[in-house]
Amino acid sequence: MSNLRTIRQTTTIRPDGGAQLAAHGVLIQPDRHTFANFDELNAYLHQVLGAKLDGRGIRGTMSRRGTYSRQAADGTPAVTFGDPVLDAISSANGVLVVGDQTIDLKEAGGIRNASGSASDTVVFSRPNLKFTGIVNDAERWATDDGSMVEYRLGVGKLIFHAWKKHTLYGYWSMGGEISVLYTPAKFQAADILTNDFMSITAPCQAYPGHDDDINDTYLDQYSFGWNAQQPERTAALCKAKWHNMKFADLVTAGEGCMNYLDERYWTPGFPVNWDPVNTFLNLNGDWSDGSSRSAAISVEFPSSLKVDMSSFDRPTARGSIDNSDTITVKFPDDRTYTGHLEAPNKIRWSNGSVWVKVVNTVMDLNGNWTDGSARSAVIWEGSKSIKIDMSDFDRHEASGSIVDATNIKITFPDDRTYTAQLLSPNKIKWSNGSVWTKKPD
């Protein structure tokens, strides 16, 4: 298990001085947890997480993208706090040693993350929630104190949460988090703007923080400190695009500083790049330059491209959708080219070459398909294989193969294997009798 990374190896320091951990389901190995004194601990937190000295203590800011769990070097599960600060300085059983003090960090009662995967994950208890209405077809539940809002759609939950926590051993944390639970349907995009309100040279001064993420299940932005002054209140404007719908709420935790409600601290609306640029032809799928080989294009949220060039023994290229008929792609072993989209299925590149889409069935299966409900399945068609993103239905990805030009065979891991007949121009008739219709691109 020596190849497991540590918090120290996984964290980067942002230009604003805060630390950022991109987790995305990784296993983290416990690292250093013994220090000669608090000065040595403070120096370590400065080195690893960019924290700054504050009197005899230390404070910093942290953001985390995605979930993780800790595992000891021998492969056994380790206590996972879900707070990279504590997970960076604790042993596999959650202990920190400073001089002659042995501190059991678990005695804090748990940090906020309830979605870690380790068996010894420390979790945060859910407060009482009350139903407040329907938003975007989702049930909205919220706490009276304004610290949590939960959207329930199908079996899944989208949660906006603010917390303020202080421990007996001098550590505190406070901030906001966005999480998706109990469904394969990740948020397509998430954005957190936090403000901590602390009285230093004037009452309730605001100290902002921000982070965003795409195609994930967890995002947070928070402040932390050890033996340092803790702000009176934190507030977080949480925004997410989930199931292709936009949600936003202001959540808060702490005391006093009611100026957090002042609109000048918050950015209204949603990020403009959350609305993807649509092309008049579907770019997903295989594209041929006229040879026997093909490149596979995948459109990624919101308007970026990945071009798998492995069949040409070339590295993956990446780019962007500029408008409805133009793309720009950087090929790392060559240069950047623009591509002009031509109906019905061509890309004409700025170097004069032309790619033609490879469609091995009677119609292009790439795109969104509906069973008549408000939700949709997303099909990706390769040269022989097919993948179906079923997350909008709270189901796992299905996969299968092209039998011939008019028939496919797909295995749904939570159900069974079905065959389907392709009916031009835009229908799939499944062997269980259901029918899917393609949505316009």
How would you characterize the overall build of this protein?
With 441 residues, the protein is mainly beta. It folds into three domains: 7-269, no CATH class; 285-358, no CATH class; 367-438, no CATH class. It contains three helices and 35 strands. It has helices at 7-10, 38-49, 84-88, and strands spanning 11-13, 19-22, 26-28, 34-35, 52-54, 57-65, 68-70, 95-98, 101-104, 130-135, 138-142, 148-153, 156-166, 171-181, 187-198, 205-216, 218-226, 233-242, 245-254, 285-288, 294-300, 304-308, 317-323, 326-330, 336-342, 346-349, 354-358, 367-370, 377-381, 385-389, 398-404, 407-411, 417-423, 427-430, 435-438. The strands form six sheets. Strands 1, 2, 5, 6, 10, 11, 12, 13, 14 and 17 form a ten-stranded mixed β-sheet that branches. The chain has an eight-stranded antiparallel β-barrel with strand order 20-21-22-23-24-25-26-27. Strand 29 (377-381) and strand 30 form a beta hairpin. The longest helix has 12 residues, at 38-49. The radius of gyration is 25 Å and the shape is elongated. The two termini are 46 Å apart. Mean pLDDT is 92; it is low at 110-124.
What Rg do the Cα atoms give?
A: 25 Å
Structural class: mainly beta
- Tell me the span between the first and last alpha carbons: 46 Å
Major sheet description:
10 strands, mixed
Give the averaged pLDDT, no decimals: 92
DSSP strand tally: 35
Q: Label the overall shape.
A: elongated
What's the total helix number? 3
Low-confidence stretches: 110-124
Percent helix range? under 10%
Count of discrete structural domains: 3
Question: Approximately how much beta-strand content do the residues carry?
Answer: over 45%
